[in-house]
């Protein structure tokens, strides 16, 4: 078993100015290879704190991965921190210096002297080539353990990890497989009740995650071989699928919009959005069958698209009646086989209210949600509500299939 910790270095990460996508990438990469990740830490550019974190991580993990802090400026302190933690002194490596000076020379530029620190190495470190940047990484062997220092830019880090780090790591003879089941229309606590007891399993395991399109349930297993892991996972996966069949819309890389596209079965879809600022169209952009859309909150324009003045006066725009009329209008005025409409209240008394409706030659159906949130949340929730309604109505066995 190989235990790992990730240390993300950068004041911009600590203060939330940049989202730490690198740590998420590395966590997935480690998990897929049977490496157990125990901790992820984010630290600012401070020599003492980073050095202390490295020493502590080495005391409890076999592999310590640092991301960021390999630039040429005074606040890039990852190399110094590793050297301090190990009690070693960095020196310029002549081969790295020649490579870096040549990198600038072929572009007709002179290398700034501050970049010389990017050629540093300590005795226990091996340089990791960086074909798309100026910051080589470090691969350090110390006391039977490993420290890996990777550049911060994701494009550089991903390539270095796959081409330089993975071949050097003593990865376990181990296979981890998983299937993620996507659900909609059921809350995470309700999923937990349905799967009571199953989420306590260690191997195979079951875990739930709230996503913007619903609740995901991940079933995973590990074994010495992929075939063995799949065999171990299969009975539990079948059980989870059976428990969640009423709410499931796809698995793994499938999207809700893609599932809806399949449900259209060759028919075209027209969309009218009021108040959701095109959020639904954004999700549907690449879906098969998506024909046309109208995105507006202008009452006069909506009346030309099927909203009646009577409904607008008596029920208001944010109402089930308005959504139903606009869904029918999407068929008539946008020339689509299926009409889908969503109206959302972002401000005022209707804030948090969402109504979605779908209309086809076989009839119509509506759905609603009323839950608070900021404007971005409300628009996202409106789009997902409309997608889910359309998927349920058009999937095999659905009311409008």
TrEMBL record:
Signal peptide: none annotated. Residues 5-172 form the MoaB/Mog domain. Pfam families: CinA (PF02464), CinA_KH (PF18146), MoCF_biosynth (PF00994). It comes from the Bacteria. Belongs to the CinA family. This is CinA-like protein. It comes from Deinococcus arenicola.
